[in-house]
């Protein structure tokens, strides 16, 4: 290989790497000193959000149900500042548990700058008219209840500032049918949209922002996808959860009041830094 060819390769490498170095360097931490509460970081999407927020300098408080979830999140967040991750064992399924959690965060950190409500799990148990009432009730008391309790207790505790925000992470299932057998998944997702609208109306005149990020893609943990490639899972193209984390961090910094951010597969295929 000639000297000119080697020089050209080095120049191309430097051009590709230098933006990443600027982004990950100590001087570029847009969420530095910001306290972000993310629930639930035991989910695939939640752990990707925590990872990216930590990379951007945020102090991330993660309410988790058990020690096993804490260990999983710590593994998911290897490579970013561990000292800024604060997992807490908390019961967010009750009013008392949510109150205790928020009080603990305020006592330890003094403020909450951002809240990210990220709860949910996929369901594909059959068509609507085949479901017993018990299953219908269970779905309504699953993710929608978690979002409701989290929002009810975190929203009033947010710092009153234009730089603060609350972000609901939702799925497209409430607006589109994924599959006839995912019937009650769509029912539960639709209930969440009512919660979002009610919260946005209540805080329409507040200084902080209440927004929604709607995901129209299947996401897997970054390590399950592999760097610089995307794989099919059950016939559906899956994307790295860290890419959603980057979009969330951007939303916390730049979104407008009552904004809906629709995340499509095309957005997730765009240029991004993979680590």
Automatic annotation (TrEMBL):
Belongs to the short-chain dehydrogenases/reductases (SDR) family. Keywords: Oxidoreductase. Gene3D superfamilies: NAD(P)-binding Rossmann-like Domain (3.40.50.720). One of its GO terms (molecular function) is oxidoreductase activity. InterPro entries: NAD(P)-bd_dom_sf, SDR_fam. It comes from Chlorella ohadii. It comes from the Eukaryota. This is Uncharacterized protein.
